Amino acid sequence: MHAASAWARPTRRAVLRTAFTAAVLAGTAAALAPVLRARRPRQTLTPAPLAEETETYRGRHIAVTEAGVSIDGRPLHVMRRADGSYLSGINHFQSFATPWELARAAVDELGTTQLALAAPQHG
Question: Residue 123 and residue 38: Cα distance in Å, rounded?
Fold first, then answer.
């Protein structure tokens, strides 16, 4: 037996098997990366308590309290996002750093229209 026969060219089957194995390993690594990243401790933002304040913006009365945000005494539905920003049903495609920015943007979007009164609870 020759020493050269031990270093023979790889067969097509061996090349395809190696490529398939590499693709499976790369896919598994890509699928597991978010899971492994999620295990790391993340920095969380602790929101500062809201001061109960009011302001007049473009002729509309805005109030931001612990109970929520209201425009002209009517409640504005505000949602807190995981990253600490805020969004509302008025402009739900944009998030804002503070409830004040959100309320001002809602006033800009509403124009002269009033917010609807809160709907009754079901159930």
Answer: 37
Residue 121 has pLDDT above 60, yes or no: no
The encoded tokens of residue 71 equal 């425009």
The pairing of beta strand 78-80 with beta strand 60-65: unpaired
Structure tokens at 7: 């270093």
Dist. CA 110–CA 4, nearest whole Å: 82
Asked if residues 70 and 107 have their Cβ atoms less than 8 Å apart, the reply is no
Angstrom distance (rounded) from CA 123 to CA 119: 13
Continuous segment of H or E residues that includes residue 74: strand 74-76
Whose CA is closest to 54, among 37, 42, 72, 39? 72
pTM over 0.70: no
Q: Tokens 């005494």 sit at which residue?
A: 73
- CA angle, 71 then 75 then 77, to 5°: 110
